[in-house]
Amino acid sequence: MSEEEKVLAANQRFYLALEAMDLEGMDAVWLHEDWVACLHPGWELLLGWEFIRDSWQRIFENTRRMKVAVSEITVRVEGSSAWVNCVEQVTSSFETGFSTAWVQATNLFVKRGEGWLLVHHHASPLPRGDEDETVQ
Amino acid sequence: MSEEEKVLAANQRFYLALEAMDLEGMDAVWLHEDWVACLHPGWELLLGWEFIRDSWQRIFENTRRMKVAVSEITVRVEGSSAWVNCVEQVTSSFETGFSTAWVQATNLFVKRGEGWLLVHHHASPLPRGDEDETVQ
């Protein structure tokens, strides 16, 4: 397995954890340091694993079901760092309805031992047809 | 000068080129490869230096003056890669008026020789008071 393939596998585990709303999956995917960073679409930047984990917990608690389709994936490995660009189509169901959003993501990983761990997730809304469409 | 300081200096050169709308400054700051990436707020992802350079040229041609204040800067160096988180407050003047926007940026650099070059710029709108304020 090449390093690129390992990074893409780590990226896929992140989206599996997201779609399954699996907090323990998130625990396994992220590096637990106070300098890791996460920007959810429309939020302020979160710095540090503690705050990032708390944000996923709150998102999962407030969502009934989540469907994530990932496309337009590129990967670049540079030594012990690697980053993935991809487009997420996220459909979320809530108590009150559902929403679909197109999101451009930058996911940055670092190598620790033989594994690649997520250290930076920057997600921002894309200007595509059905973004922010909400049906109630 | 530590590697962190060198990366922060490279980050500052990027914003000086942006504020001066200096395309040659952009040439000097970016790595010229077909895998470098740039996401302007509200755009689709641009892949490859040729398209990225063209986008800066178009932005500079369509802007009369640009003022950029950079704050909330963090930096992380990991071998020959490094990334900066920062907030940009961008005020742009056009023929028809001006706009102010708050933007969260991820800037990713790689080390080539003794220099750090920009390979990834992800900028997305922040939900702050005067974003998208336009006076005409």
Describe what you observe in this structure.
The structure is a homodimer of 136-residue chains. Chain A has 136 residues and is an alpha+beta fold. The first copy, chain A, has three helices and seven strands. In chain A, strands 1, 2, 3, 4, 5, 6 and 7 form a seven-stranded mixed sheet that branches. In chain A, a hairpin with a 2-residue loop joins strand 3 (65-78) and strand 4. Chain A is globular. The A-B interface holds A 35, 37, 39, 41-45, 47, 72, 74, 76, 78-81, 83, 85, 87, 104, 106, 108, 110, 119-120, 122, 124-127 and B 35, 37, 39, 41-45, 47, 72, 74, 76, 78-81, 83, 85, 87, 104, 106, 108, 110, 119-120, 122, 124-127.
Top keywords for this entry?
globular, alpha+beta, homodimer, 136 residues, seven-stranded mixed β-sheet
